[in-house]
């Protein structure tokens, strides 16, 4: 069981006189749990998610983000004792992803010329390689990478490169797409290019399903979805938790998705801090009373 | 601003070239006329921005670059059934009359100093003839340049309702000390309702200065599609042009370049709409790394009689380093109001959010950047009809990234 532990996280925009956005975020998400992170615009929810993933636009000024791993987190892969706690802030974004952190984007990038199949298979193989290297310090595949460069193709990717071969990957992808009720035609399309808003969000959940993260942070995965798509996406999120034991940190403005993806914990952010936490009933209470209620309660108590 | 005529260049030199190849009198005369014209001709125009002349052709020292009597190349030609693909000299025996009629009809030798020099001195090149109704795929010409200078002239003639796809690739063979000069003129005379795709892949060593002018004359209902790939040479000046002379003729001019080190690329795409219902699509994608520079000019010229014209132009340059430089000038000249046209150019770096998206999925940053660059070229790769050309271009791009 993995645990993402955010302690006293302070961060600002990484530029001269950059605005301070996070002012002491504390949060803990474990595998298999579903957390909802709610809060008004500008409270720091999205920033929190981007900093967990390692977005270069922000600078952490205080606090830490730790990832604790346990035996069963990577299936059969044994995790050495000295590689069980990681300070994410010291890792590159791709290394964080390799250890099981996933960020579902509010606005996924549209990338022409890179097919879904190529992208996802490359990502899956890169994840396996990088994780090996982080856990066991193996670094002998550099040569292989260089050689593989000549067999690359923007349409298909490195045909005979990586742990997961083309045929095996196609099977995996089809399986996950079926689960999400996604059309197979997406496999040969360019990454998010020309996708509708809903298709992009579905694709984020699909990517999580393929990469099997320990902790998935989903930034407004529900915004702009019609009811059918919302149900598909919710089904996908529940499957991540139920079938892969992924811990979910779901950022949302709305109660709506929480009817389909029931949270174990609800947190409310205000002004760069988590100010209130509770169970699923907190979300309904918030829906009724609004953020002013939280604000009053928090600042009066202070 | 004409260049200095090389001292080693005379009517005698030209005669010697022509005699050695046992050429007909008319070709010798054409060469001599071109030679004579050199005195009066100017170098091709280059883009100027305030305080800067982007490509300094005047600095080329033709006297040391041009060695007319020692030209050498190793060229292989593959041709499918039904189409004539011959070295220029050999073709004269059987197709002399046709060549005499069409030679220089699309690219006039006196167009500028460099075309005249090429016409006077060329020793290699190919004649491609596609008879009426013949469909020919995958004509492949691979040339290796083995001398200080090499001048090539290619003439493509397609008869009514024929079609052909062509790959022309040029690279360096034997190494020669010091700088080299490669000149390549290509003329396409596209007959009524014919289809030509002419793909060109230039990957000469980085001691070479390359000048290339390719131009097509598109007859009624014909289509001429160019794919122009430039990865080699120290300096490349490339002009790819189509005159849409026939009603309802079409052209695509698709270009890809990838410069690194201190390579200089001056690439140009031009189309003249001269008849009704003509369509043009100009697409160029370029990548620059290290201290490479590129300058692009794209011209869509819609003539007075070109009613109901469609004309589109896009150029995108991607910079991989802070030291690279690019300039782009898309130009639209419209003399007929019944035109649908667009033109756009952009110069930028790899999108930081695209990169972060990929990296957040475990892909290491450099690999992610490479995938984005390869993806950037896909719109060009998708246009290529000759598989071998697409594979080669992909491979060269991949190799340059790693």
TrEMBL record, chain A:
InterPro entries per record: AAA+_ATPase, ABC_transporter-like_ATP-bd, FeS-cluster_ATPase_SufC, P-loop_NTPase
Keyword ATP-binding: yes
Keyword ATP-binding: yes
Protein keywords: ATP-binding, Nucleotide-binding
Biased amino acid composition, Acidic residues: 136-149
One Pfam family of this chain: ABC_tran
GO molecular function: ATP binding; ATP hydrolysis activity
Region (Disordered): 136-161
CDD domains assigned to the protein according to its UniProt record, in alphabetical order: ABC_FeS_Assembly (cd03217)
Residues of the ABC transporter domain: 4-296
UniProt name for this protein: FeS assembly ATPase SufC
From TrEMBL, chain B:
Swiss-Prot/TrEMBL GO biological process terms: iron-sulfur cluster assembly
Superkingdom as given in the UniProt entry: Archaea
Domain called SUF system FeS cluster assembly SufBD N-terminal: residue spans: 70-137
Pfam family, one: SUFBD_core
SUF system FeS cluster assembly SufBD core domain residues: 146-376
Family, per entry: Belongs to the iron-sulfur cluster assembly SufBD family.
Cited NCBIfam families: sufD
Protein name per Swiss-Prot or TrEMBL: FeS assembly protein SufD
């Amino acid at each position: 069981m993995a645990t993402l532990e955010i302690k006293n996280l302070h961060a600002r925009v990484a530029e001269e006189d950059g605005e301070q956005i996070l002012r002491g975020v504390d949060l803990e998400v474990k595998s298999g749990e579903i957390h909802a992170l709610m809060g008004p615009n500008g409270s720091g929810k999205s920033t929190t998610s981007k900093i967990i993933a390692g977005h270069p636009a922000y600078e952490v000024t205080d606090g830490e983000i730790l990832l604790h791993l346990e035996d069963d987190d990577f299936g059969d892969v044994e995790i050495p004792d000295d590689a069980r706690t990681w300070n994410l802030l010291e890792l590159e974004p791709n290394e964080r992803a390799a250890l099981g952190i996933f960020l579902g984007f509010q606005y996924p990038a549209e990338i022409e010329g890179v097919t879904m199949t190529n992208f996802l298979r490359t990502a899956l193989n890169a994840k396996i390689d990088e994780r090996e290297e982080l856990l066991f310090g193996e670094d002998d595949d550099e040569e292989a990478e260089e050689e593989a460069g000549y067999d690359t193709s923007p349409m298909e990717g490195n045909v005979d490169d990586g742990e997961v071969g083309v045929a095996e990957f196609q099977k995996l992808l089809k399986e996950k797409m079926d689960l999400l009720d996604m059309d197979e035609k997406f496999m040969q399309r360019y990454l998010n290019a020309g996708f509708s808003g809903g298709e992009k969000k579905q694709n984020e959940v699909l990517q999580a399903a393929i990469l099997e993260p320990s902790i998935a942070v989903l930034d407004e995965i529900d915004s702009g979805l019609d009811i059918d798509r919302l149900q598909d996406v919710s089904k996908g999120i529940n499957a991540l938790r139920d079938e892969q034991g992924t811990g979910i940190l779901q950022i949302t403005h709305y109660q709506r998705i929480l009817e389909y993806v029931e949270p174990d914990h609800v947190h409310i952010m205000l002004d760069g801090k988590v100010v209130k936490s509770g169970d699923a009933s907190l979300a309904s209470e918030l829906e009724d009373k609004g953020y002013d209620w939280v604000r009053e309660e928090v600042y009066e108590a202070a | 601003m004409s260049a200095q005529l090389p001292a080693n260049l005379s009517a005698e030199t030209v005669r010697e070239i022509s005699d050695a190849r046992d050429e007909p009198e008319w070709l010798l005369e054409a060469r001599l006329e071109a030679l004579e014209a050199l005195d009066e001709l100017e170098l091709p125009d280059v883009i100027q921005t305030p305080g800067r002349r982007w490509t300094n052709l005047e600095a080329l020292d033709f006297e040391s670059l041009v060695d007319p009597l020692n030209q050498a190349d190793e060229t292989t030609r593959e041709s499918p059934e039904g189409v004539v693909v011959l070295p220029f000299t050999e073709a004269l025996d059987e197709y002399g009359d046709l060549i005499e009629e069409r030679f220089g009809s699309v690219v006039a030798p006196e167009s500028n100093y460099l075309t005249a020099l090429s016409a006077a001195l060329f020793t290699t090149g190919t004649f491609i003839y596609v008879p009426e109704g013949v469909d020919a795929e995958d004509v492949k010409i691979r040339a290796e340049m083995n001398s200080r200078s090499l001048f090539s002239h290619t003439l493509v003639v397609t008869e009514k309702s024929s079609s052909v796809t062509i790959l022309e690739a040029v690279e360096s063979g034997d190494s020669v000390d010091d700088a080299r000069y490669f000149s390549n003129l290509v003329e396409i005379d596209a007959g009524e309702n014919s289809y030509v795709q002419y793909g060109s892949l230039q990957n000469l060593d980085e001691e070479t200065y390359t000048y290339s002018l390719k131009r097509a004359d598109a007859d009624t209902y014909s289509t001429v599609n160019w794919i122009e790939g430039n990865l080699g040479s120290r300096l490349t000046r490339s002009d790819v042009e189509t005159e849409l002379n026939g009603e309802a003729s079409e052209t695509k001019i698709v270009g890809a370049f990838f410069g690194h080190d201190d390579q200089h690329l001056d690439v140009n795409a031009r189309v003249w709409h001269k008849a009704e219902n003509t369509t043009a699509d100009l697409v160029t994608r370029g990548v620059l790394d290290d201290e490479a520079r590129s300058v692009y000019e794209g011209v869509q010229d819609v003539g007075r009689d070109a009613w109901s014209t469609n004309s589109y132009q896009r150029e995108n340059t991607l910079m991989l380093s802070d030291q690279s430089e690019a300039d782009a000038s898309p130009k639209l000249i419209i003399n007929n109001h019944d035109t649908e046209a667009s033109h756009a150019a952009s110069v930028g770096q790899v999108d930081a959010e695209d990169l972060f998206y990929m990296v957040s999925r475990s892909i290491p940053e450099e690999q992610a950047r490479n995938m984005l660059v390869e993806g950037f070229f896909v719109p060009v790769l998708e246009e290529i009809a000759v598989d071998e050309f697409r594979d080669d271009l992909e491979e060269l791009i991949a190799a340059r990234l790693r």
